[in-house]
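Colleagues,

For the teaching module next term, I've prepared a clean inverse folding example: a structure given as tokens, and then the sequence designed for it. I'd like students to try predicting residues themselves before seeing the answer, so please don't circulate the second half yet.
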């Protein structure tokens, strides 16, 4: 009688279909773990993105202030002439 051995856990089955059905259990576990990892990474990336967005807002605010300063300086120069 041929036996089919699961390459993941070593369990033996006497028909190919049984092994195929059994292997899905491992596949699901692997997929679950992979998905869990992806979710965690996405969450982390999202948190980092939020931090970056905050930083960007701060930077653009500073830039705006500088541009306003430059503008008023130019205006002053024009008025002096
Ligand atoms: Zn197995």
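(Answer key — instructors only)
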């Amino acid at each position: 009688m041929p036996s089919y051995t699961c390459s993941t856990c070593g369990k033996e089955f006497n028909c190919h279909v049984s092994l195929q059905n059994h292997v899905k259990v491992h596949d699901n576990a692997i997929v679950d773990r992979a998905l869990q990892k992806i979710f965690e990474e996405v969450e982390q990336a999202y948190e980092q993105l939020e931090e970056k967005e905050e930083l960007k807002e701060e930077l653009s605010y500073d830039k705006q202030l500088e541009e306003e300063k430059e503008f008023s300086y130019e205006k002053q120069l024009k008025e002096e002439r």
